[in-house]
Description:
Helices cover 39% and strands 13% of the residues. The protein is an alpha/beta fold.
Amino acid sequence: MPDYERAAADRPLASVRRQGRFHPSRFCSKRPPVIAAGSRETLHQPPRHLLAMEGMHPPQIAALLDLAESYALLNRSGKTKRDLLRGQTLINLFFEDSTRTRTSFELAGKRLGADVINMSVSTSSVNKGETLLDTASTLNAMNCDLLVVRHDQSGAPALLAQKVDAAVINAGDGTHEHPTQALLDALTIRRHRGRLEGLVVAICGDVLHSRVARSNIHLLTTMNSRVRVVGPPTLIPSSIAALGVEIFHDMRAGLAGADVVMMLRLQRERMVGGLVPSAREYFRFFGLDAAKLANAKPDALVMHPGPMNRGVEIDSAVADDPQRSVIREQVEMGVAVRMAVLDTLSRGHGRNEP
Ligand code: MLT
């Protein structure tokens, strides 16, 4: 029996579920209130919050991507400073470490002229025992307009959205969703392929713990891409098939003919016990190297949300190959997407042409 199957047998997914790491929310007993699908608010009013990709409609996604594309062009032109958000306060409230996402939101807010304040857990009063709801009431008293939240508990941004006056943007909650990551991934793909519809996208690795995977699955299936998830049985929940994806446990088969290969970080900090035998073993079977990539289309894009574990889920030669890897461009598109989201939530969808 290969090590991965043995590890799966040793530690069935049920045990992960029992420990509360699998289900989206400890805060919410039902789905977080995203932009309610099909509601009057969704169709006729600007969205109030961005909490998840689940429930978003294709025209909403396309509009955000179109706006982000114009911000990408504007950023490249060097004319970045605008005053669209002048007088508005954006608070980056990060209960979990992040450099890339926080910096990206900070840059996006500043490029649009907002006053940006970074609050991290080490400086906030959470360490002194303040609850999330007390934090919400403090933020309300500060008249914050836009609140970017990252939290290690799924559903925390949705809970805050019910309590604060600000527009809330989920910057990653537990294993639930990371909607701006999915939008920036989609924008990057669309820039290279001109469309999302009909593309075969292989999302590979630690799907079990990945909010990036979940947001991408919702966005890409909504936009009619064909999504595959590829990884060891220990890291692919079988229930994920209900989201309309195909499951593969072999990289060669999973990557065959793929237009896009999206690698995920092995999220050891979220793992309970030995879901993966060793980094070396993982790389051998599931790390992306030139040999495995050769199964995808010859011009397949290589993506990774970062931070990368080089030599674990991806080989440096592939990650740094300018012909295949669009990982740097993903970071660039992150700023453009976040500008589009801030713009849309602050003044209403489609009203502000950059
Ligand atoms: C995340 O916050 O989920 C990151 O963008 C991806 C990762 O941590 O692997």
